[in-house]
Design goal:
By secondary structure, the protein is mostly helical. The protein contains five helices and two strands, in the order ααββααα.
Length: 185
C-alpha cells in the first residue's frame, strides 16, 4: 500500500474536541496499561505463596475471578499463576494498542497505517480475551485447584472485538480508496 496518503490530514476545527478527549483517553489507557502490566508481573509471584505463607489467607484475583491460595502446593500455585497470566496478558496488549490509538488521535493522525494496525490489534486482543478467560478457567479446574470457576465476562469482548477488527479493515479500505483518488487528481 502506498504511503502517499498524508500523515496528518487537514482536520476540521470540530475535531479539536476529539483531540482533547483523545489526550485524556490516552492517559487513562496508559495508566490502565501500566497497572495491568504490574498485575501480570505481580502474579508471577503466585508460586511463592505457600513458601511465604501469609497466615493461610492469600488470594489472587483479576477481573472478578478470585482464587484462594490457602492450602495449595507450589505446583498448584504455578498452575494458578499460568491461568492468571493467560487471562491477564490479552488485557495488557489490549491496553497497549488502545493507548496508542488515542495517542495518534491526540496528534491528529486518523487514517494512518499505525492507527489502523493498533485498532486491528485492539480488536484482536479483545476478541482473544474472551477465549483467554475460558482457557484460564479450564486450566484452574483441570489442575484441581478449584471445582468451579465463575468467570463471566459475558459475550461483549467477543462481539466488540470482532466489530473493532472489522472497523479497522473498513478504515484501511477507506484509506486505500482515498489514496487511489489522490493519485487520480
Amino acid at each position: 500500500m502506498s504511503e502517499s496518503f498524508p500523515t496528518i490530514v487537514s482536520l476540521s476545527p470540530d475535531f479539536e474536541c476529539a483531540r482533547k478527549l483523545s489526550r485524556v483517553m490516552a492517559v487513562i489507557f496508559t495508566i490502565g496499561f501500566w497497572l495491568t502490566l504490574l498485575t501480570a508481573v505481580l502474579s508471577l509471584g503466585t508460586p511463592l505463596a505457600p513458601i511465604i505463607d501469609a497466615g493461610g489467607n492469600s488470594t489472587i484475583g483479576f477481573n472478578g475471578l478470585n482464587i484462594s491460595l490457602a492450602g495449595l502446593s507450589v505446583v498448584q500455585c504455578v498452575w494458578v499463576m499460568l491461568a492468571f497470566e493467560i487471562i491477564i496478558l490479552p488485557a495488557v496488549f489490549l491496553m497497549h494498542h488502545t493507548r496508542r490509538v488515542f495517542g495518534h488521535f491526540a496528534r491528529g493522525e486518523v487514517f494512518v497505517l499505525p492507527v489502523i494496525r493498533h485498532i486491528r490489534g485492539a480488536g484482536f486482543w479483545l476478541f482473544l480475551s474472551y477465549f483467554a478467560g475460558i482457557a484460564g478457567g479450564i486450566l484452574l479446574v483441570a489442575s484441581g485447584v478449584t471445582q468451579h470457576v465463575h468467570y463471566d465476562s459475558g459475550l461483549w469482548p467477543l462481539g466488540i472485538g470482532v466489530v473493532t477488527f472489522i472497523a479497522a479493515h473498513v478504515m484501511e479500505e477507506a484509506r486505500r480508496i482515498a489514496d487511489d483518488n489522490a493519485g487520480i487528481v
